[in-house]
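Molecular record:
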Amino acid sequence: MVKKLLPLISLLFLLLLPGLTWAQDISAPKYSNEFLNIGVGARALGMGGVQSAIVRDATAGFWNPAGLVGLPKRHNAVYMHSELFAGIIKNDYGSYATNLDSASALSFSVIRIGVDDIADTRRLQNEYGAIQYDSIEFFSVADYAFLASYARQSNLLKGLTLGANAKIIYRNVGKFANAWGFGIDAGAQLRRGNWQFGAMARDITTTFTAWKLNAEELEDAYLQEETSFNANSIEITLPRLILGAGRSFQFANRFSALVATDLDITFDGKRNTLISSGLVSIDPRVGLEIGYANAVYLRGGLNNVQQIEDLNGKSSWKIQPNFGIGVATHGLNLDLALSKVSDNSQVSSVIVSLAYSFD
């Protein structure tokens, strides 16, 4: 099995290599377009974001497009909503996927993460120093991603599926700045009995995001600080590789279990992960799903292993637990996840997903 997977992994590294080599000669920021790494879908986030090998629903357009070949019905739709930081940040996701034939599938996805109703108080005082509340304006800061995904069964190896994403990124900071970007992802899945393997290469050509600032709105602020003003800039997202494996189990006819793990590998410098260096950082994740009668599901996951330093300068390792439940009936799936749980058990993120599949 390992010998059969080596050519596939080698191919993904070859896809990543041009972008990594080119990016060594430029200044690429860490955590560029990081909103795309938060994740989508309550099922996935309840399992700690472990999906590259096991995803087989409409969210595969995000996690690994190769999983679209395993869609349960011809038409599949999913919507997700979550709120972060006590509802300040709104995270919305929608996707539609369809089987083109028995060996190929297509999907379209939209992601929006934003903060709305931000007060612009720059003109709160007039030239005489008087407060004029009617001069307050409100704006939004939001990041958008539009994904078109395609997957097809491969003839190279039995059980192998291949997929790709073309994504358009739009980022907006009210009337002050906006940016457009474009990127490509590639993924693969291999299914062998109860075993599933996956590989997802994101931003394989590096993703370019071109920013344009509104000079008329920002010039006064820059002049007050006596700093230079550059109205245009380019942000570059370096490639990322995710390798995963999972295995399913069946118990007493009505009970099932799915255990999976992912390795999130980044190449943009040393990160606060379990395994890190100047060349590569590796963030491991593990997820579990227990099902009853293909109708009720209980989920859990561990991810985001980090070394945290307290106020006394003492460092300790922390890990983020995630939990989820799901109900499925007649093609309708309702999933709930609790993510980003702190040490005092206060939940800071609640994710709700609704999915429907039909022929």
About this structure: The first helix runs from residue 2 to 23. Residues 20-26 have pLDDT under 50 and may be disordered.
